[in-house]
């Protein structure tokens, strides 16, 4: 019973956390805590078989499935705060508190008396006793369960399967497409420029600089551009002295007086050494 | 030993899961709250098995776990399919049947 009073507040707090955290991954981790605590409560309630099943099936399988789907769907897919039905949140909270009060007060009205305990039922071992019941009285339900599981597995496979509608791109077709784009639209035939070339910084979020000093937009990933985290190369080049003081390096003589990175050819090499560790 | 505390804890967890299903918008979090409700009912079943001194409650909890596993597999596959077509896991966006 001491274990219960330790675990119960943790479980209630974590369950309340599921209601309030913004990110779905945090909710999944809080749910994992609730389920592991629940497994220990089962162990305290003379159910060692369910203790193992709770850990293996719930924490091991189901929550991992949740996390896999979260990673596929995108970790940053958080809740929208817009209410589609007006006042739904308030009404749901009031209704939930009402339901909880009805349940708790109703349970407070009854007295369950002293528990009989499972010492007799578990005398030959908990797992043997469960197997005796499961394969005699509940054997039909057990067989129906197998049908349910195989239906669920096939259903999930059918739902997750995606038919390929177009033939797969081969290297040959990609090359042909590239040449066709060049002849029709004048797209550059060669590979895209790598980021950071001619800038004093070789990180992937710094665009390459063209000979006239402007940034080559095609040199940074468009994912970074969409997130708005692309850095401006001249600004980074000017910030080298600041980075050096942050790293605790003594400033070289002459480096502060170096001309802007856009005009020197040796700038990429020195820039890489200076800021590579920082990037 | 008295199991009232266990049943009250189960009722509280069930209520929290219920409110979560009603208030959260992300379909995956709604699913987690359904799991929380199933777990709460499992706790009550195991507690009552101890109260009455037979193992039928534990077998029922075992069946609930099996059904929950099947439900999660199919439900997450449906969420994946909806996300693939609509690029969103919000329960508000999947309202096409309304029109």
From TrEMBL, chain A:
Annotated membrane topology: Multi-pass membrane protein
Broadest EC class assigned to this enzyme: translocase
Membrane-traversing stretches: 6-21, 28-45, 51-73, 94-118, 138-160
Keywords recorded for this protein, A-Z: Cell membrane, Membrane, NAD, Oxidoreductase, Quinone, Transmembrane, Transmembrane helix
Low complexity bias (residue ranges): 257-272
Pfam families, A to Z: Oxidored_q3
EC number: 7.1.1.-
Function: NDH-1 shuttles electrons from NADH, via FMN and iron-sulfur (Fe-S) centers, to quinones in the respiratory chain. Couples the redox reaction to proton translocation (for every two electrons transferred, four hydrogen ions are translocated across the cytoplasmic membrane), and thus conserves the redox energy in a proton gradient.
Matches recorded under InterPro entries: NADH_UbQ/plastoQ_OxRdtase_su6, Nuo/plastoQ_OxRdtase_6_NuoJ
Family stated for the protein in its record: Belongs to the complex I subunit 6 family.
GO MF, one annotated term: oxidoreductase activity
Compartment(s) of residence: Cell membrane
Signal peptide: none
UniProt main location, coarse: membrane
Region (Disordered): 250-279
Protein name, UniProt field: NADH-quinone oxidoreductase subunit J
Superkingdom, taxonomy of origin: Bacteria
Species this chain originates from: Nocardioides mangrovi
Reaction catalyzed: a quinone + NADH + 5 H(+)(in) = a quinol + NAD(+) + 4 H(+)(out)
From TrEMBL, chain B:
Keyword NAD set for record: yes
Membrane-spanning parts: 6-22, 29-49, 61-83
Pfam families: Oxidored_q2
Annotated catalysed reactions: a quinone + NADH + 5 H(+)(in) = a quinol + NAD(+) + 4 H(+)(out)
Subcellular compartments: Cell membrane; Membrane
InterPro entries hit by this protein: NADH_UbQ_OxRdtase_chain4L/K, NUOK/Mnh_C1-like
Primary location recorded for the protein, binned into one broad class: membrane
Bilayer topology term: Multi-pass membrane protein
Ranges in coiled-coil conformation: none
Residues in the signal sequence: none
Keywords annotated in UniProt: Cell membrane, Membrane, NAD, Oxidoreductase, Quinone, Translocase, Transmembrane, Transmembrane helix, Transport
Taxonomy, superkingdom: Bacteria
Family statement: Belongs to the complex I subunit 4L family.
Its job: NDH-1 shuttles electrons from NADH, via FMN and iron-sulfur (Fe-S) centers, to quinones in the respiratory chain. The immediate electron acceptor for the enzyme in this species is believed to be a menaquinone. Couples the redox reaction to proton translocation (for every two electrons transferred, four hydrogen ions are translocated across the cytoplasmic membrane), and thus conserves the redox energy in a proton gradient.
Subunit structure: NDH-1 is composed of 14 different subunits. Subunits NuoA, H, J, K, L, M, N constitute the membrane sector of the complex.
Family annotation (PANTHER family): NADH DEHYDROGENASE SUBUNIT 4L-RELATED (PTHR11434:SF21), NADH-UBIQUINONE OXIDOREDUCTASE SUBUNIT ND4L (PTHR11434)
Protein name: NADH-quinone oxidoreductase subunit K
Protein species of origin: Nocardioides mangrovi
